[in-house]
Amino acid sequence: MDITFISDTHCLHDRLKLNGGTVLIHAGDVTEYGTENEVEEFLFWFSRQQFNYKIFIAGNHDLFLEASTPAQRRMIIPENVTYLQNSGIELEGLKIWGSPVTPYFLGMAFNAREAKEIKKVWQKIPANTDLVITHGPPKGILDNGLGDEGLYQRISDVQPAIHCFGHVHGLHSSVINNGTVFINAAMVNKPDWILSNEFNIVGKPITANIPRARSIFNFLIF
Fold it and tell me: Taking Cα atoms as reference points, which of 157, 134, 160 lies closest to residue 147?
């Protein structure tokens, strides 16, 4: 099953060139200012991408998605798009779980103030999960020192085939650690706020071919 990963597009999604495929996953920060209008514009674009399945989570910029009720979200999320918020879905035998939660930073969306609070979220990741999507990274992996220790520990316990995240700009890449493929799919740059405060798309979508059988770990990433 081919899966394409993107994250942190910050309203620049229409600058991406996606070739289509089986699954498209966005790991959060679909907006810049977190407004409902920005979310709707993203969903209009996302729902029209040529993938069989389209899944996204929110990020710390996506304030509307945190403030909205499930009913409000259902009204604007197209039928062919799946939104995960500390929840999971199974696609063709592949078990996927996603969360927007990150450690506290400036009171933005889905911030957890205490380590024990965020640890409760990570304990919700089912033990048989194949693919974990979080907005923030685990500690020590493509995180620029901003990763969460509790998330790292839970991923080490669950050992999913893939853990995708974003949040940390400028480290767009993938690595393999302890049998798990870790993907930082953040698409935009880390701007120099003294010289420029503008985001630009600098990364390319990352595609992984993942076998449906959890026991087989043969991955092709390009």
Answer: 134
CATH superfamily of 2-221: Metallo-dependent phosphatases (3.60.21.10)
How is 55-102 classified by DSSP, letter by letter? Answer: EE---TT-HHHHHS-HHHHHHHS-TTEEE-SSEEEEETTEEEEEE--E
Ordered mean pLDDT values, 10 residues apiece, the chain (222 residues): 96 95 98 97 98 98 97 97 98 96 90 89 97 98 95 97 95 94 94 67 91 47 49
197 by DSSP, 3-state: which?
A: coil
Which pair of tokens denotes residue 109? 């969306």
Rounded Cα–Cα distance for residues 12 and 135 (Å) = 17
Determine contact, residues 165/154, Cβ cutoff 8 Å. Answer: no
